[in-house]
Amino acid sequence: MREIIFRGKRIDTGEWVYGDLIHERYGTCIQFIITVNPRGKGAPERKPTIERHKATIDPATVGQYTGLKDKNGKEIYEGDILDCSYVNPMTGNKVERLFFVECGEAAFVARCIGHSPFGDIYLHFENTEGNIIGNIHDNPELLEEG
Q1: pLDDT over 60 (residue 132)
Q2: Which of 28, 101, 109, 146 lies in disulfide reach of 59, CB 3.0 to 4.6 Å?
Q3: pTM (2 decimals)?
Q4: For the chain, which domains are there?
């Protein structure tokens, strides 16, 4: 089954939260679930309890999970910045570029930061070595490095 998860930065703490995206009259929220284990020594064996929480987030920071992971197994979201390498089919040379992830018209797209003779690419990781190095919200300086 496909996972549909969103992330966004909390307005009150600046912390990233992950879960379901909710649009309410007073703002955009992420609802997330945490598992709470019994605290203290000698607590009787119990099933963990599950709590639902909502956090108001900055709508400009919302990003959807792409369903893909980088080479280290980290989930890739819209707004992530990837350090990728690929083999140029014309020259056979290995090329390293930075890309940022966004939702295109039909798929998630990796947009090259700086010049690329191939332009944007649909996001997939066949024959590439992609690694998340930041995101456009926490690391805007990476957008200038291309």
Answers
A1: yes
A2: 28
A3: 0.78
A4: 6-61 (no CATH), 64-144 (2.30.30)
